[in-house]
Amino acid sequence: xxxxxxxxxxxxxPFFLFGCSGxxxxxxxxxxxxxxxxxxxxxxxxxxxxxGLMGRESLKEDGGMLFVYEKEEQQSFWMKNMMISxxxxxIGSDLVINHISENVPxxxxxxxxxxxxxxxxxxxxxxxxxxxxELDIEVGDRIVLP
Length: 146
What we know:
Order of helices and strands: HEEHEEEEEEHE
CATH architecture: Sandwich
Distance between the termini: 25 Å
Largest sheet: 7 strands, mixed
CATH superfamily: Protein of unknown function DUF192
Radius of gyration: 15 Å
Structural class: alpha+beta
Number of domains: 1
């Protein structure tokens, strides 16, 4: 495949797969213990990524938010103005979880910690805090996209 085609696919493939921002889809996480399905809001637009789950008082037990990026690179999240704690799963373009920040608390100050992927990630999945431990989701597990 030539460079131009690869470049175009890397930009447009996420939009073809997921449609517009804010659409609900099911994402599966495949672990040694089984397959766990989450109904997620898929966000691709930059404005929606900046808003994320900010201001939400709760998240359904099987709910989450999937952030889709145009290319695989280091991603960084913070919890400013959040009202709930989260597990943040960083996922490479190969759909393998490469880092998990567990039980990340909300931040009410202006000096919030950044939670970053040590490896490049193209997807980030936010779930309720404690879900990763409860379901034994680990680095190296895979996700299945809609």
